[in-house]
Amino acid sequence: MTDPILRVRSLSARIAGQQVVEDVSFDVPASGVTALLGRNGVGKTSTIRGILGLIERHGTVEFAGERIDQRPTHRIVQLGIGYVPEDREVFSKLTVAENLRLAERGGAPNRELVDELFPDLVARAGQQAGTLSGGQQQMVSLARALINDNRLLLVDEPTKGLAPLIVQDVANALERAAGSVPVLLVEQNLHVVRSLADTVVVLESGRVVHTGAAAELLDDEELTQRLLGVAAEVES
Amino acid sequence: MSTVVLLLITGLGLGALYFLVASGLSLIYGLMGVLNFAHGSFLTLGAFMGWEVARRLGQDSWWGLAASLVVGAAVGAIVAAATELLLIRRLYERHIEQVLVTVGLSLATVALFEGIWGTDPIYVDGPAWLGQTTELLGAKVPNDRFMLIIAAVLVLLAIVLFLRHTRYGLIIRAGVENRAMVTALGIDVRRAFTVVFAIGGAAAGLGGVLASHYFGYVSPHLGGSLLIFAFIVTVIGGLGSLSGAAIASVIVAVLQQFANFYLGGTGDLVVVLLLAVVLLVRPTGLLGAKA
User: Fold this and answer.
1) Counting CB atoms within 10 angstroms of each CB, which of A37, A50, B178, B245 has the fewest?
2) Is residue A1 part of a domain?
3) Please, what are the domains in chain B?
C-alpha cells in the first residue's frame, strides 16, 4: 500500500477561543477522493482551514511525508495543494480572467483543461466575478484550483446552494480532476459523495468517529442516519 | 466669479495634497487593516529632505525643484517600506499594538525632526514661476496650485495603471477584498504589504515637498496637520478605495475653502460636520465596501 499524501495527527483548532476541531487524526490516500463528512458545525471546514494554516491550529500535518504544520499558508499551497473554499470566495471586483491569472502559480498553467471544463468562463473572461451567478462563481473557484498542477485538492462544499444541473457539472469536473490528483472533499450532498468518494472520514463534535470505505457507510442506512443525521440513498 | 474660481482652484490644490496623503492611507488600510498614524512622518521627512536637496542645488531652479520632488518621494518610499518591515510586519491583526506603535513613531519622529531642523518653520523658495499668478476666468490663481493638481493627477494615474496592469497590482486589489484567500492561492501577500507601504510613502513624501511650496514653509508638524484631514478624507471616501479618496479629497478641500471664505473661517468645522453626516448616512464612506 502506498503512503498517504496527507497525514493528519491530533489536529486541534480554535476560532476566537472556541475549540472547533479536537484531536482529529486521519489519512488521505495518494489517489481517489476522500470525503470528510459530518453534520453541520462539526468542524469539517475548520479541519480543512487548519490543514492550510488559515486558522490557529495545533497537531501534526504531513504532506507527501513532509511536516507542513509550522509553515505559513502560502508555502503550504506552493507545495502543490489546490484549495476550493466554502462559499467560493472569488474576488468579486476582479474579472474572471484576473481571478484565474492571480491563481496561476507556475509558468505552465492548465489553461486548456480549464477552458474545456468551464467553457462558460471563457465567454465571460472580462466579466467581474461578483456579477456571476452562484454556479458560475463556483466554476471560477474550481478553475482557480485546477489551473495549476496540484498534488492534492482540498475542496470544501463545492455544491452548496447550487441548482441540480450545476451540481452535476461540478461533480463531473471533480471526477475529471480526481483522475489525476487525490482530493479531500467536504460535501453534504450524499449523492455526490456516493458518485465520487472512495473513502470517508466522519466527524462529530470536532472529532473523528468513523473512517472507512464510502460505499460501506452509504450502504448502511442505520449508520448513515446515526452519523450524518440523514438517510442515504441505498443503491439496489 | 473670480473669487469662486480662485477658491475652486485653491481647493483643488489643497485636495491634491490631501489625496497624496490619503491615497497611501487608504491602500494601507484596505489591504492590511492598518491605521497608520505615522504616515504624516513620511510626509514631513520627504519635505525636509526635499528642501535639503533643493537648497544645495538652488531653490529657485527647476532642477532643484525636480530633484527635491524625486528625493522626497524616494525617502518617503524607503522609510515607509522600512517601517513596514521592521515595525508593522510583526503586528498584523494586532490592531491596538499597531495604533500604539504608529502613534509612538509619529511622536518620536516629530521630536527627532525638531532636534535636527529646529522647532521653527523653515521658509521654502521655489522657481520664480511658482510664486507668480496666472489669470483664469478673471481670477489670479497662484501657479503652485496648478503644480499640485497636475502632480496629484499623475500620481493617481500612475497608481491606477500599477494596480490594473501589474501582478503586484492584481495581488493588492485582490488582497483588499480577501487577504486570506490570496494567501490560500499560494501568494506571499506580505511582499504586497511592503509594496503598498512604499507606494503610500512615496506619495506622502512627494506630497511633503509640494506642501512645503503650497504653505511656503516646512516644519516638524507639517505632516501631522495634514494627516488629520487625510484621515477624514479616507473615511469619507471609503477605507480602501483609491477612487473614493480622490473624490473625497476634492469635496473636502473645496468645501473647506468655500466655508473658510463665506462662513467666517469655519472650514474645519464644516469638514468635521460632513464627516459626521457621512458616517451617519453611509458609514462605509462614498465608495467603501459594504459590510
Assistant:
1) B178
2) no
3) 2-281 (1.10.3470)
Interface contact B280, partner A, CB < 8 A = no
Q: pLDDT per residue over A66-118, tens digit each?
A: 999 999 999 999 999 999 999 899 999 999 999 999 999 977 888 999 999 99
Structural domain contains residue A96: yes
Domain interval for residue A56: 6-228
- Which among A233, A154, A216, A217 has a CA at the least distance from the CA of A187? A154
- Cα(B264)–Cα(B259) distance, rounded to whole angstroms? 7
B185 interfaces chain A, CB cutoff of 8 Å: yes
Q: What is the pLDDT of residues B81-134, one digit of tens each?
A: 999 999 998 887 788 999 999 999 999 999 999 999 999 999 999 999 998 999
Within 10 A of A205 (CB to CB), how many other CB atoms are there? Answer: 14
Q: How many CB atoms lie within 10 A of CB A94?
A: 20
How close is the nearest chain B Cα to the Cα of A74, in Å? 4
Contact B1/B132 with Cβ under 8 angstroms? no
ipTM of the complex: 0.91
CA distance B23 to B263: 29
Residue A98 included in any domain: yes
Chain A contact for B160 (CB, 8 A cutoff): no
CATH of the domain at A125: 3.40.50.300
Domain count for chain A: 1
Question: Given an 8 Å threshold on Cβ–Cβ distance, is A54 in contact with B180?
Answer: yes
